[in-house]
Design a protein that fits this description.
NODB_dom, 252 residues, 5-stranded parallel β-sheet, transmembrane, globular, alpha/beta, Polysacc_deacetylase_ArnD, transmembrane helix, 3-stranded parallel β-sheet, membrane
C-alpha cells in the first residue's frame, strides 16, 4: 500500500519560503538583465558562452578538425560580406594544412584551438588532456602561432577540472549559445532559420568548416546579410571578450 505524507508548515514558515523564492527570482532576473549569469564566483575559472547582452556585437565561430575543401567557400562568403570570424582548429589539422590556416589569418580572421586531436576530453584522464593541450601548443608554435590563448574543447565537452587546467596553461575556454548543428546537414533553410531566430545580443554562434558540412557556405549567403540587417555587428571572440563593458555568461 502506498503512503502519502503531507508536510504542514506553520504560517511563518510559509511566508519565509515565499520570501526566499521571491529573492531568488529577483536576483536571477537582475543577472539576466546585466547579461551575466554565473555558476561560479568571479574568483573561479570560467568558460565564455555569451558576451554582453546589452551590446549588439555577436561572434561567428567555425570549428575545423578535418578536410580541406569546404573551408574555401566559407572564406569566400565571409570576404564578400566583409565579416570577421573566429576559427577554432585542431592542432592535427593545422599541422596538415598550414597553408589554409595562413589563408584564414591573412583574411584577418581570428584563430583558436581545439586541442591537438579532436577527441572528447571527458573520455580522457586529466593528464591525457594536459598532454594533448601541451602538444597542441607546441605544434601551433612551430608553425608560427605562439600566441593562441583561446581553447574550445573537442565537441564542446568539458567540466570544471578541464577549465581549471586550461587556465593554468594560459587558455580561456570558449563555448557557444547558438548552434544550428550545420554539420548534420539538416537543410540550408533550417540552418538559416535557427541562426536568424535564435541570435541575440552578445551571442556566440557555432558553425563548422570541416568537410562534413555541405550546406554551411550557402546558408551564409542569407545569414550574414540577414543578421546585419537586424542590427548585429560581427566581431571576433577577442573583441567580444575585450569590450569595455562586456560581462560573460558562465557555464559549468
Amino acid at each position: 500500500m502506498d503512503h502519502f505524507y503531507v508536510v504542514r508548515f506553520n504560517k511563518w514558515k510559509r511566508w519565509l519560503i515565499v520570501f526566499i523564492f521571491a529573492l531568488f527570482t529577483a536576483t536571477f532576473l537582475w543577472f539576466e538583465s546585466e547579461g551575466a549569469l554565473s555558476l561560479f564566483s568571479e574568483d573561479e575559472t570560467v568558460a565564455l558562452t555569451k558576451g554582453n547582452a546589452n551590446e549588439s556585437n555577436i561572434a561567428l565561430t567555425f570549428n575545423i578538425s578535418w578536410g580541406e575543401d569546404k573551408v574555401h567557400a566559407i572564406l569566400k562568403q565571409l570576404d564578400q560580406k566583409q565579416v570577421q570570424a573566429t576559427f577554432f582548429v585542431s592542432g592535427e589539422w593545422a599541422e596538415r594544412h598550414p597553408e589554409i590556416l595562413e589563408k584564414i589569418t591573412e583574411a584577418e580572421h581570428e584563430v583558436g584551438m581545439l586541442g591537438y586531436r579532436y577527441e572528447n576530453y571527458l573520455d580522457q584522464e586529466i593528464d591525457q588532456v594536459r598532454d594533448d593541450l601541451l602538444h597542441a601548443k607546441e605544434v601551433f608554435g612551430k608553425i608560427g602561432y605562439k600566441d593562441i590563448e583561446m581553447l574550445r574543447p573537442p565537441s564542446g565537452k568539458f567540466n570544471k577540472e578541464i577549465i581549471e587546467l586550461a587556465e593554468q596553461l594560459g587558455f580561456t575556454v570558449i563555448h557557444w549559445n547558438v548552434n544550428p548543428s550545420d554539420w548534420k546537414n539538416p537543410g540550408t533553410k533550417k540552418i538559416e532559420n535557427t541562426v536568424m531566430k535564435q541570435t541575440s545580443n552578445g551571442d556566440i554562434i557555432l558553425m563548422h568548416a570541416s568537410d562534413s558540412v555541405k550546406q554551411t557556405a550557402d546558408s551564409l549567403k542569407t545569414i550574414l546579410p540577414g543578421l546585419k540587417n537586424k542590427g548585429f555587428q560581427f566581431v571576433t571572440i577577442s573583441e567580444l571578450v575585450n569590450q569595455a563593458h562586456a560581462k560573460s555568461k558562465i557555464v559549468e
